[in-house]
Amino acid sequence: MKRISKVGAVLLALALCFAQTAFASGVVNLNGAERHAMNLFLSNFTEVGSDVSCYDVDSVLVDFAHDHLWFNDHDAFEYGEYANGTNCRVPDDRIQEIVDKYFAWSREVDLSQTRFDYDGEYYYHEETGGWLNAGFALALNAYETEPGRYYVSFLTFGEGQAWNSDDLDLNFADAEMKFGIPMHGGHAWITAENLSDRSTYRMAEFAY
User: Fold this and answer.
1) For residue 118, what are the β-bridge partners?
2) In this structure, are 116 and 143 located in the same domain?
3) Which of 62, 100, 152, 201 could pair covalently with 41 via S-S, beta carbons 3.0-4.6 A apart?
4) Around Cβ 80, how many Cβ atoms within 10 Å?
5) What is the mean predicted confidence (pLDDT) over 189-205?
């Protein structure tokens, strides 16, 4: 497994130094439940391996919601012989629900804006078993920049490997021992009413 690139490592170090300087007065020492909730929320984004920083583009949100379903609810998908040589489909009825659930700036999205074939009801793709789990996130630092809004830096482990919810409680040394060196790093601005309750989290800005 490859290491984070030298340029990426430098950029991540600079981001951490900036955060530590700019947000020093708002340092949040996450307890066990808060850290698990934070890691779980972030991992919903890192596992799909997509960059949702272009949050004003509907296709970014629609495709994130589709891929989130793929990684978390296989039963939502149907298999058969469909148009354009596709063999897998999922209805569009949960896309807006997922966007509303995960994003602080949620808005009604145009469901037709997507990388998939779409017929106004279903999204279709050719399933070959080639999807890659892009790993889970472990928070490095958290800072409350204003009431209920947090800046978080993170590293990702386990790209292409099987992992489960228990791994979100690993410390960095144990995560590296089990999954190898972290493959990526990033940061996010998150809103949350209760850091122990993942359902109150919303993504305000994400860079991966």
Assistant:
1) 123
2) no
3) 201
4) 9
5) 95
